[in-house]
Amino acid sequence: MTTFPVINFEKLNGEERKDTMEKIKNACENWGFFELVNHGIPHDLLDTVERLTKEHYRKCMEERFKELIASKGLDAVQSEVKDMDWESTFHLRHLPESNISEVPDLIDEYRKVMKDFALRLEKLAEQLLDLLCENLGLEKGYLKKAFYGSRGPTFGTKIANYPPCPNPALVKGLRPHTDAGGIILLFQDDKVSGLQLLKDDQWVDVPPMRHSIVVNIGDQLEVITNGKYKSVEHRVIAQTDGTRMSIASFYNPGSDAVIYPAPELLEKEAEEKVQLYPKFVFEDYMKLYAELKFQAKEPRFEAFKASNFGPIATA
After folding, report:
1. What percentage of the chain reaches a pLDDT higher than 70?
2. Measured between alpha carbons, how far is 101 from 176 in angstroms, rounded to an integer?
């Protein structure tokens, strides 16, 4: 099997830019995922984020998780659990307004560090969107503008820990799903693995790599690119040893942004293929996603084809 794509972001600034852009294009078209190294976020900041995240879990969340698991009987299940995940999570919102100051139990240093980290991830996400525009033949800024809505994009972070699980064959860390939003940037544990994506009907490990950022395509980019780039199903396998840290940041459209295939791409592809994606308001998509997250994405798209907006014409 082809090796999981790893992109050296620094090479975009030199003689290897063309080859690096081709690697990004290939990853978007054939994997829906890639791993970024030398992405410009300082390693010492990543180390601090990891240290504080793991300290916060041990001090504030680990005991709570154990109590929840015991109350649900998940530590002694005999058959596959299909309605719960083996994860301990909390969420931070950055855009359009931050809620970091309101989230309970965070020490001041952690709040400050996560604000800094989020600003750097936001900048990186916007750089990546412009690189995707370049590869797609769209004008610079098109994807950011498509996400903008009336108040700018939404951007938030899910901080998750996946503790040791006695029955990983029966309880998933996180059940298979695609991500609803735009572009996702993940800072994951470099020692404890567990993230897998579905490629050619086989589950493939996303390799833990120190100081890397894993990038994946969400459902909204699949719609905007008219299926040229696809969101890919992925899952987390719980491990019997070690707690896996996962910090996933979602750069998504604004809640009132209207999402539809880029007309320029439809014009280019009109003779080659006709694959209609619907036009919808992002907030409406998210309401449907909340109900159907762990089901196939295609029915979500189909549900909007009959909406008031109707499909986008290809000619």
Report:
1. 94
2. 32
